[in-house]
Here is the input.
Amino acid sequence: MDHRTRLYDRVVRITHIYLGPAADRFIARQVQNHLGKEPEKLTVDDLVQLIDWIRVAVSLLTDDTEIVEEYVLQLQRLTYPEAEATGKRVSSDAG
Amino acid sequence: MPASNENTKKQAVVGSRSAAEERAQSEAIFNSIGDGAIATDEFGKITRINPTALRILGYKEKEIIGKWFPSAVINVDENGVPLSLIDRPITRAFLTGATVSDRAYFQRKNGTRLAVSITVAPIIHNNRPIGAIEVFRDITLELKIDRMKSEFISLASHQLRTPLSAIKTYAHMLADGYMGEILPLQRRSLETIIGATDRMNELISTLLNITRIESGSIAIIPKTTNLVKLTEEVIKGLRHIANDKHIDVKLKYSAPAILKTDSLILKEVLSNLLSNALKYTPEQGSVTIKLTGRNQHLTISVHDTGFGIPKHSQQQIFTKFFRAPNVIKHETSGTGLGLYLVKGLVTRLGGKVWFESEENKGSTFYISLPK
Amino acid sequence: MANVLIVEDDQDLNAAYTIILKKEGHDVESAFNGQEALKLLKKFNPELILLDLLMPIMGGLEFLQNYSLKEQHQDVKVLIFTNMENSPEVTEAYKLGAHRCIIKSWTAPQNLARVVDDALSTKATDSAA
Here is the structure.
């Protein structure tokens, strides 16, 4: 239960960097609309599906493809096995 | 060996020719669509645009292919102010994963504004969104007709109400002794006339609202609305009826209920439901209004301890002019339009309405609205 | 008690409002359209104007534009009479300085007298827009 909440929170935290205060509502709506479930119950498998939708939506909010890819990469890292097990964010590589 | 090589080669050539033909055909189809059509990829860049769209927007194909859609095709509101990107229909299509239809304005290449009706849907391939397809058409004429309809309705409303005002005003003046002393029997007759004009006024309002709904000319103006305050206002407006019949009206809510909706229309809906509850509940009864919120929706319920709706009448309760036989017995006045209007207005607000009822026990009407 | 100008094209209503307000003790003049009203204003100084919006020859809005309420007659209260609630005309009237809007078909005589009294007792700058 706790672990699952953490995934959603981590997604929102990352999103907050790029979308600001609207992050929580943005992600919550995506989870509810595309996955039909409560945001807190977001799983890694869900996230894989969701990233596609997030990418297309955010691509309509900014034409800076580099930023979009950077954001998507951060989200993708949350789906790596270590991230799931330890609940820690995978530290970004230099550069 | 060489023969089968030849054959494989031939098949390969035939195969790719079919693919090329199919592509050409699908392009021909796309280009022949009578409305404007624009396709974008997963990065929001325009991949295809048909001649109708180019003509409507005033662009040449090479100016716009490959450009980022939100800056190439600008959505503005009726004042020419660009819509924020998150409010655009195409963004909403991806946020909801569903097809979005809406009216909006495009800014043409020459800077002029054009009213359009847009339908945009995500393109899904192998279960993934790979872009969007937006189809739109010029609705300038439709808007003009809508405006004419609204103006006519306003005018008709004024013209119907003016003689009614005169009837009511003079009846009041007679009853109040402005024209000389009045006998009690005469006063009661005048009060009957006044009551009838009030009912006629309500009827005109309801008919006009229904005409507006049916002609689609009800404009929804969403604003941040405090539902608790709105409901309290509605209750206040009908307090005198509740007091006359000694009916207890309670409002219950668990948390402040805020939503974005057209507060005038919602007020009309709530007034109708509360007025019905009061009308069809005998003296000493009670009416309870509850406001609850879950996720994306707010639910309003109006519960009364009144006559209820018999099972055989329940199917028709939202139809025009329908009145259940059991209430006609108790309360002869009523147009049978109130719930028809409620359903139309709630649908227009993007919500749902339903009810539960048992004869002689009472009824509960529910409205759910998106936040 | 006060000078009141009634501007209403419907003759029956015009007569009715005149009777009601005279009975309350006000000094009442009336006109059937905006143009007549402007003429009357050369000789009559009302403290309150009951103004219908939809009238022939010159309607309520045009009257307000010509009357330059904001500049020259700031202390005069204008009550708009209409049957078209929530219309853009009403919004425009408020912009031109109208104080309040009354829905004709719902106003009984006692209410009219009361509304007029209310308006006269508040300051001109407290507009209900």
